[in-house]
Amino acid sequence: MTTISANSPVITLINVFTVEPANQRRLIELLAEATNVSVRRAPGFVSASLHRGTDGTKVTMYAQWRSIDEYQAMRQDPVPLPFLQEALKIAKFEPGIYEVVRTFAPDHRESLG
User: Cβ(45)–Cβ(73) under 8 Å?
Assistant: First the structure.
């Protein structure tokens, strides 16, 4: 399960894909299949979440890994490659690797007055 915490040792990958609305569903299917058949079984994989843009032009994948080295090792696996190659035929993507710096929760203090 995805846990977002500044005290967590995981690395976060946020990949934003831009796609034509007619291809958004197919892109989600491809990313889900690649994750199901291979990525989630890789050493170091913690979690992944797929997000669909409400305007149909974006798909974002938020993934957590124990380390950058384990993530890089997974990228050498040929099993998810056909899904990812097909995804890149219908979408452009902007990858990013992040560390959580800070998180915020609602302030539930009762109002004074």
Answer: no
Q: CA dihedral in degrees (76, 41, 6, 51; nearest 10)?
A: 90
Q: Which two tokens stand for residue 56?
A: 């149909």
pLDDT in tens, 82-99: 999 999 999 999 999 999
Buried b / exposed e over 6-38, threshold 16 CB at 10 Å, is: eeeebbbbebbbebeeebbeebbebbebbbeeb
Report the residue count for the chain: 113
Under 8 Å between Cβ of 18 and 57: yes
3-state secondary structure of 54: coil
